[in-house]
Amino acid sequence: MRIVGFKDTQGLRLGIVEGDQVIDLQAVDAGLPADLGAILRRTNGDLKALSDLAKKAPASARVPLKGLSFALPVASPGKIVCLGLNYLGHVKEGRYADNVPKFPTYFMRGLTSLTPHEGPIVRPKISDTLDFEAELVAVIGKRVRGLTKENACSCIAGWSCFNDGSVREWQKRTTQWDVGKNFDATGGFGPWMVTADELPAGGKGLKIQSRLNGDVMQSDNTDNMMFPVAETLADLTTGITLEPGDLLVTGTPEGVGQSRKPPVFMKDGDVCEIEIEGIGILRNPIVDEGR
Q: Which H/E stretch holds residue 21?
């Protein structure tokens, strides 16, 4: 299933994408939460009920996918845990080339830093160093701690695309990256969540690409992660409980804008696309703050 968040005149909704249509789940069951995270908490990650609900949908519950006002796939993720330096090519193109990490490098993002599919990524007034980063994101379906590599993938409800928009100037001001990674509306997330049963375990073997104004900037495969998803989840949950609706954003390949000669940063009027095999295309226009 492709589960999509969207908005209409009645507010936030959840839908299931079927071809060029979306089944409005709240039109079938008005009591259904509009936040996928809330549903995952209620069902312990089992989404079969949504599939069953969609089968009961009358024609009146179907709306066109074209023109949909997209919302985040998970409306209010509790934790957004991100990996840096997870593809060797990306490590070698940057300032950590002589210090290849032995363990996963984590940082956090907040909800206000996110923007949905087709929503604007905002370049802040204070800097012109807004960079793109194509990333695969895992949506957590169950409350877990102490995972092993063998059972880690069982907690994943599904997958989506992410653009880890980074204000490089601010990211480099300190050894902690969080401010440069958390400017408002700099992280694209969407267009929907594809349930885990439709993709390879651990999100392995997927082509991942970023394009800026149609030009390919990054192109790689998730097989090339230094710290694959299962190993990362086992490491992370040694000390941190993950809960339904939490996100794990898994790092970017080489080709980011700051490492190009000359550097290429996102600017007002640009369009950035992140495409991941089996999921789809996350598309965001870039606009200047205050426009």
A: strand 21-24
Is there a contact between 255 and 218 (Cβ–Cβ < 8 Å)? yes
Instruction: Tell me how many degrees the CA angle 76-69-155 measures, rounded to the nearest 5.
Output: 35
> Do residues 171 and 82 touch, judged by C-beta distance below 8 A?
no
Q: Domain residues of the chain, as ranges?
A: 2-71, 80-288
In the three-class reduction of DSSP (H, G, I as helix; E, B as strand; rest coil), residue 36 is classed as helix
Strands annotated E in 168-240 = 187-195, 207-212, 215-221
Distant-in-sequence, close-in-space partners of 199: CB < 8 Å, separation ≥ 6: 159, 206, 278, 279
Degrees to nearest 5, angle at CA 230 with 224 and 233 = 120
pTM of the model: 0.97
Q: Give pLDDT, residue 96.
A: 81
Dihedral angle, C-alpha 6, 12, 16, 22, nearest 10 ° = -60
For the chain, give the number of residues: 291
Provide CB contacts within 8 A for 216, sequence distance 6+: 209, 210
Residue 233, H or E segment: helix 229-236
pLDDT band at 123 (very low <50, low <70, confident <90, very high): very high
Is CATH 3.90.850.10 what the domain over 80-288 is classified as, yes or no? yes
Condensed to tens digits (0 to 9), the pLDDT of residues 55-89 reads 999 999 999 999 999 999 999 999 999 999 999 99
